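Friendly challenge for the regulars: who can give me the structure tokens for this chain first? No prize, just bragging rights.
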Amino acid sequence: MNYYYDNNMTIRNLIDRAFEYRKKGDFEKAAATFDEVSNYFLIRGIKHKHLAFKAHKIECEARLSRKNMQFDSYRQKMSEAENIWRQLGNEMNANWCRANIESSLGTECFKSKNYEEAIIHFNKASKAFSSIGLKREAEFNKAFSMWAEACSLKNTDPKKAAILASDASNMFQENGFQKRGLICKAESLYYSGIAKFREGMFQEAKEDFLKAAEISEGLGSEKHSSFYKAYVYQCDYRIAKLNEDIEAAIEALHKSSSLFHKAEAEEAYFVSIGGLHRLKGFKEKAKSNYETAIKEFQEARNYYLKAAETSKSSRLRHEQSAEYMEALFLSTEADCAMIFRQDLKEASRLYLESAERYKRLGDEDNASFNTNMGQLLRAVIDNDWKQINQIFETLHQYYKTKGEETPFSIAHNVIELFSMFSVILRRRHEEMMRELYEEDAGFNFEARVRELIMRFDGRAIPGSLIGSEDDKIILHKYDEVREAFFEPEDDEVGIVFDDKSIIEIDVLATRKERERRFILICECKYRAQKPISVSDLELLERKSKFIETRYGKIARLAGELKPIIEEKWFVTTGRFEDKCTGYARRHGIRLIDLKKLNNLLKEFGMRRLLGPRPKALKP
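First reply, four minutes later:
Bragging rights claimed.
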């Protein structure tokens, strides 16, 4: 006799007991009791009832497996139950099992960040639950599908991700899943903050990150709260830089780094702490504390390399940051060797080595400066005053080494020569600090350019307005104008970068005419002194080929004609190197400087841009 019932208990009582156990969540007792019932009908040869209660038993075993985090066993048993129900012709119960299997698969894919597969499974689960009238469960899986889609878009389209996550949050809460809804709400605010952050709206982004942190704190999630608070200080860091308050910037970055560490966000922590050491290095270099600056740049390099180890998608970008730090500490070692040790041979070697690093990074401005310094010191060692004067003449154009006096007047005057070295370095360091402060000003600049292109309405303007030899230029009206971020697919790796680093397009404008998409792609650079080089234009050209490839795939799937990149623009507040003109003509790139940009802004009734204004340098 089984201990679950006695001789007086009818089979009906036993069945009721089994369902009661299941209702209370005691799946172990429920499974054992359903097994007793199943065997009862098996002995009596009532096959359909035997199979039905066997299916109930297997469902309980499945739910017990899920409770014990044995998800493969859970899905296997649910699949067994589903097959039995279909064999019995009970589509409702079969669909319930299938819905749970799909929901479980969706959850597993979601946790492993395979969001595309998660979306597919959650949508199947939602459809299956709907087919059997379980609206709450259907809505739950639909909300999860939207959340997964939001997660898949957080890097490439955070605005859309924020909307999707917000909708998912509302759906969760409307169906009684309050905690899940609040978690999703916090993520929605985070995505919204990221979108504003990328637009240069740092104060507005900060408010979103603070709200996200408050929600997470209320849910008792210190890890998520710390992560969102870290972004609050990232905003403070950018605001401090724009205000040229380096001490406040350092303090904000220190707090952000500590919070990323607390949140166990390895990549973000390594990048943030690397940025902190970089910032400290610039500060010390500007004060001519070269040895301290070298140590800071070396530390920054080490942390960027650690970031590269933790991220496949951004590995190349972090490695480039590390190489930039190497170039910086080599040039700083050169400064130190020249000014303090007066070891001109070693300083020359270090400047030239640094120049090679900058060339590999495509930084023509720093490469040119360090090449000039290295060659200048070689000329001093060789006592080649003709070469000395030629190089000083080049440097004098940028750094105005001594009032109206030309370098020729100081030939053979060694004391004056070293005095000019000091002036050049000091002014170069001040210029580098200005560039550091202006790094984040570009966000607002890009937004202004996007706003301008949104106003294009098909009008024809004189070509001379933007430096074109054409009599008239048509400024087409575009259906969509946005900032875009793309993660390369396997066959797209190598078009822009050699890995799957996110590809950022400052302005991507598209319009459809008949069955073809026409595209404008634009790169924006907010710069005061540093000119745009051919390597900058080459990057735009590679991005253009990527967009042509990606939209070509979309066109083939939609049965459309091959897309056309009709406009490639490079817009800057600074200037273009002379070599850029020829390259731009060969590749069909429009070079838009501040004057041409202001012509366009005036044409469309927008406020003109003054551009970056470098501070007056002390004589």
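Residues 1-8, 401-412, 613-619 have pLDDT under 50 and may be disordered. The chain has 23 helices and seven strands. Your move, everyone else.
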